[in-house]
């Protein structure tokens, strides 16, 4: 996997520091999902990861601090459902300025989990879409109820 350059932006809002990374323009599209512990429901990230794997064949789930548990749960759901295989897990700490503590540098835990498509991914994901379209097309426009 090629190393990519990222531009890191820090935003301080209501005593919480949020770090957002933006990939610098390059030929390779981004397959990174940055997970928050409280912004979106768990299955939002599960479904988003499935879509990324369809497009890129692999996805990198990334989180800081309290969101690490959410990333691990998303990865386990995908693995246990036979959709993904674990390629790489990387853990580190990052330094961030916390304005609530007077601009003091604080360390936060970071995890990056790279998942790839499982061998049965296309068989599991694709037929469901075809079946849903077929059911929608065969469904009657009205329902009669005999009392």
UniProtKB/TrEMBL annotation:
GO cellular component terms, semicolon-separated: nucleus
Domain of life: Eukaryota
Residues covered by region (Disordered): 127-147
Pfam families: Alba
Start and end residues of each DNA/RNA-binding protein Alba-like domain: 31-91
Family matches, as SUPFAM superfamilies: AlbA-like
InterPro entries: Alba-like_dom_sf, DNA/RNA-bd_Alba-like, UCP030333_Alba
Protein name: DNA/RNA-binding protein Alba-like domain-containing protein
An MF annotation (GO) of this entry: RNA binding
Bias (Basic and acidic residues) ranges: 128-141
């Amino acid at each position: 996997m090629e190393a990519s350059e990222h531009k890191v932006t820090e935003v301080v809002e209501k005593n919480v520091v949020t770090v957002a990374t933006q990939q610098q323009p390059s030929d390779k599209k981004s397959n990174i999902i940055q997970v928050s512990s409280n912004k979106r429901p768990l299955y939002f990230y599960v479904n988003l990861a499935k879509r990324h794997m369809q497009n890129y064949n692999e996805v990198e789930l990334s989180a800081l601090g309290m969101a690490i548990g959410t990333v691990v749960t998303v990865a386990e759901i995908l693995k246990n459902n036979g959709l993904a295989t674990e390629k790489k897990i990387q853990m580190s700490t990052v330094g961030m300025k916390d304005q609530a503590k007077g601009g003091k540098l604080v360390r936060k835990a970071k995890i990056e989990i790279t998942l790839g498509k499982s061998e049965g991914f296309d068989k599991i994901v694709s037929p469901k879409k075809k079946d849903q379209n077929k059911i929608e097309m065969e469904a009657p426009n009205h329902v009669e109820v005999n009392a």
